[in-house]
Amino acid sequence: MAADIKERQKTALDAYKESTSSGGSIDKNRFNVKIFQYPSDLQIAPNLKHYILFNINIRGKSKFNADKVQFEVRKNPNSANLSPDQLASGPIRTATAIAAGAGAGIAVSTLGKQAAKSFGLTGSKNPVISEKAVNIGSNVAGGVAAVAIGGAVAASSILKPDTTYRISDAIALYVDGPPTVKYSMNYANKELGTLLGVLSGSVIDGAGFGAGSMEAGAAMGASLAKLPGAFGVADIASALSASTGTALNPFKETVFESVDFRSFAFKYKFYPKNKRESDDVHKIIETFKFHMHPEMSDGKMFFIYPSEFNISYYFGNDENGYFHRFATCVLENMDISYGGEQFSSFRDGSPTEINMSLTFRELEILTKNMISEGY
Fold first, then answer.
1. Of 16, 68, 293, 373, which Cα lies nearest the Cα of 172?
2. What is the DSSP string of 50-69?
3. In a 10 Å sphere around its CB, with 0-12 CB exposed, 13-18 middle and 19+ buried, how is residue 242 labelled?
4. DSSP for 145-202, written as a single string
5. What does the pLDDT look like over 178-235, one tens digit per residue?
6. What's the pTM?
């Protein structure tokens, strides 16, 4: 099991390190890992030791890049998210099948009625062919369709749990600026209410209201006066507050609600120095663009999720443990600008400058367990 986990966590650069110990180019090795990089002297030049590696995970249902699959990728078990298997559990799939079957039944029933009307069968004086008979016939057909379609949905591979697989294509880019990360929690102010405060006080005091029984009783009376229509006086609580110069303590508390998904933005400027770098930049852009988009199921009824990315900071040949780690991400936004302030190109038509902006969003909710792992 430990060996299996280690294998799943292997990155494209890890595979490279196993294949050679001589350094040099990181673009190909015996594991058939192809890394598109910019600039071409990445990892070699003294000022380019820091870089970011983008590994790509395709969907198990994808029809593309199956020949490049290396190993299965699993979500971090310490994340607060449900796993794909939990999300597609038996009850959920059964409910989906029932809903789809019922929908099919309604559709067949409606089609049956429309077909009967088109042939002039509804409203016929013939006692055998009547509106009631058409309704019964179409509903029976609808019920049969509901059962058949429901069963087909339950057995359909398109609605079975999906996972992702690491492919041999990866992208390595220079660090575009100081690594930054933002951690954000969501808290809300909630009023527990005076009555709950009184009851809590009685529990704290142990027996009865204790030393504050008179005050607690007054607070409870004033709180009850705030109830709609209490004692037949609409605003008795406000009158009581104004006359006594006191206001009820609403017992406000700050309540933790959720954790925000982190997002990361990267901006790159490409200035190809030669034909090879120009081609590499083009491949980098096409690879990001391709994997951020979904694909269609065979019947065009479903979108298959886009690919996912595992991002890592590297220094030389090793992952840089001084920076934060990234959970699995999706590419949300990609902006490309060809040319600088004044567009220009090389003789073959390739632009001399390209600007690219990427925004990634994590798919896993961080917990203390993941923070202890360096996220």
1. 16
2. EEEEEEEEEETT-SSSGGGE
3. exposed
4. HHHHHHHHHHH-GGGS---EEEEEEEEEEE--SS------EEEEEEE--HHHHHHHHH
5. 999 999 999 998 876 655 555 555 444 444 444 456 566 665 565 555 555 544 444 6
6. 0.72
